[in-house]
Amino acid sequence: MRQSLDELLEECGRLHGHLCAGQLLGVRMALLGCRLTGVDDPRGADRKKLIVWVEIDRCMADAVGAVTGVRLGKRSLKFFDYGKVAATFLNTESSEAVRIVALDESRNLADSRYPQIENRKERQFRTYREAMDEELFKVERVTVEYGEMDAPGRPRARVACERCGEGINDGRELRGMGGEPLCRPCAAGGYYKARMG
Ligand SMILES: [Zn+2]
Ligand SMILES: [Zn+2]
Question: Any idea which ligand is nearest the CA of 167?
């Protein structure tokens, strides 16, 4: 990474709208993820190598995106709504992947390390900046389900849902009893329902 922690934090704060402890945690997570997967310059020379899965839609996710340059609209950022402060970093060239989870203990770390600092945010900032990676994160080597249909670039396939008629890209359809293509909401229920009347 070319930028210092402070430079990255400032950028994150600008993009995210405020500077918070979650951003700092996200920056540390992104730096660690890139380092462990051998992605040295994620926004420059290595920008085609990195895919990141985030498991929560909170501050941390914005920081990971800002630091690494991955974007939902470029398919380099994937979102799974698990409600966990966690992210997986994949180097598509080497197939190396690590999943990093923020430890719940890291919250208490700030209180126990700097009880004399009254301001909670300041305690957290100081701690998240200084703590060792092992104190903040659990790291595991993983393999990720990642195929041709998940990769950046032009859509690989497009079919229409037999029931609602809406188009579905990249093999995200399911199949009905007769093998007909169905979108996920039609086949299995979605997050929305049409309003009657
Ligand atoms: Zn925030
Ligand atoms: Zn449908």
Answer: 2
